[in-house]
Design goal:
This protein has 7 helices and 8 strands. The protein is of the alpha/beta class. The protein has a domain of 284 residues. A 5-stranded mixed beta sheet has the order 4-1-2-7-8. Strands 3-5-6 form a 3-stranded mixed beta sheet. A hairpin with a 4-residue loop joins strand 7 and strand 8. The chain is globular, with a radius of gyration of 24 Å. It starts with 9 loop residues before the first helix and ends in a 12-residue tail after the last helix. It comes from Aporhodopirellula rubra. InterPro entries: DUF1559, N_methyl_site, Pilin-like, Pre_pil_HX9DG_C. Pfam families: N_methyl (PF07963), SBP_bac_10 (PF07596).
Length: 420
């Protein structure tokens, strides 16, 4: 007797397919969450390596790596370091005008000895691999032909950030903490010719309250609030050319007069339908910094010490918009120069907020080397209070920006009474 063959009916097959579809739909978010958790852990590990590098650097040189350092020519012109009529934002092929970020000095301390040998010696290779004729420590960091400046360093990148390739040079996702003020974050205590005046020194003393001070020497002994209570560096996400308000700073903000723009005004101009992106038609003063040329997005140059690329401040909470400002510092201030030449905006400072591609917050590196995850909801004080800027404030004031601002300052005697 012939046996009857068994099989699935069409209805049963459709039911099985539907069940498989439901299971895949349930599993995919879990897989994606697991992948992001792994990327976030890898990002934290990279930041930890940077922290260890900073501590090893300090052990070797008894100071922290300097934000905005390098070669300048050391001319003798009334104390100026630059020859002739040069100013620090001028491009140069033979020196870097002291524009290098703190990350450059860290290269040999994060297993980058081979790259450091290229930077610290003459004749580093060109970006295209051909033989170069460069001076030691390279040209100014906007030079795309100098090979080391275009090198992508894995330790300086967050795996969750998808940004890669042109128009950036070598990207970074980690930036020096410059304190709780948007002023003097490009210049520090220096004037246009890289010399120091009493006026610029006083402004810097008042406004530059973070661990890193542009052009300034710093050490762990300067962090009077305690290493475990002070942020040394924060995470930033790099620009993808999508008009993201966290990576494409808007221009037109001004803190020079009595009607100065307070931090909360950085939110003006956001798209109501996509609040993380700019609505370029909403504010006439808005001009995206990326329109001023290639290589000007957030995090686009790991070797460049200007705030757009490797700086952050603790004023607006994490993942808030970023905006460029002009500060009250007389004629010697790059932030004033942008009024007449907006192409200089890439060298300006402002509300440079930390950001990340992680859900809900950013990583920060504390002075003791610990890596913490700070949520977007951290208490950030009075966002309608103008930042400390020298003309209206005195050194030593407690931060206006609550717990977040207190974490970004190093010597204001603020007490951190909760676990971060």
């Amino acid at each position: 007797m012939r046996s009857r063959r068994q099989g699935f009916t069409l209805v049963e097959l459709l039911v099985v397919i539907a069940i498989i579809g439901v299971l895949v739909g349930l599993l995919l978010p879990a897989v994606q969450a697991a992948r992001e958790a792994a990327r976030r852990m890898s990002c934290s590990n990279n930041f930890k390596q940077i922290g260890l590098g900073i501590h090893n650097y300090h052990s070797a040189y008894n100071q922290l790596p300097t934000q905005k350092s390098g070669t300048s020519g050391f001319a003798s012109r009334g104390g100026s370091k630059l020859p002739g009529s040069e100013v620090w934002w001028d491009a140069s092929l033979i020196k870097n005008n002291e524009q290098l970020s703190f990350l450059v000095g860290l290269v040999p301390f994060v297993e980058g000895q081979a790259l450091w040998e290229q930077i610290s010696n003459p004749n580093a290779p060109n970006t295209n691999g051909s033989a170069g004729t460069w001076t030691a420590m390279g040209p100014t960091p906007e030079n795309a032909d100098y090979g080391p400046w275009s090198t992508e360093i894995p330790t300086f990148r967050c795996p969750s950030d998808p940004g890669v390739g042109l128009p950036s040079f070598g990207r970074t996702n980690y930036a020096a903490c410059l304190g709780d003020s948007a002023c003097r974050t490009s210049d520090g205590g220096r004037r246009d010719e890289l010399d120091i005046s009493s006026g610029t020194a006083n402004y810097a003393r008042t406004a530059c309250r973070g661990v890193f001070v542009p052009h300034g020497k710093a050490a762990f002994r300067d962090i009077l609030d305690g290493l475990a209570n002070t942020i040394m560096a924060g995470e930033i996400t790099t620009d993808l050319g999508d008009n993201d308000a966290r990576t494409n700073p808007k221009t037109g903000m001004n803190v020079r007069d009595n009607a100065h723009d307070v931090p909360s005004k950085t939110y003006v101009g956001l798209d109501s339908d996509r609040p993380q992106f700019w609505d370029t038609g909403a504010v006439t003063t808005l001009q995206a910094i990326s329109t001023f040329g290639s290589g000007t997005g957030r995090g686009y140059r790991w070797a460049d010490g200007n705030p757009v690329y490797t700086g952050m401040i603790t004023v607006l909470p994490p993942n808030a918009p970023v905006g460029l400002i002009m500060c009250p510092a007389g004629s010697d201030n790059i932030q004033d120069k942008t009024l007449n030449d907006p192409t200089l905006s890439a060298y300006s400072g402002g509300y440079m907020t930390p950001s990340s591609r992680h859900q809900g917050g950013v990583h920060v590196l504390m002075g003791d080397g610990a890596v913490k995850f700070i949520t977007d909801s951290i208490e950030a004080g009075n966002q309608n209070k103008a930042c400390t800027k020298g003309s209206t404030s005195k050194p030593g004031y407690s931060s206006f920006y609550g717990l977040w601002g207190a974490l970004g300052t190093k010597a204001n005697k603020e007490v951190i009474d909760e676990e971060i």
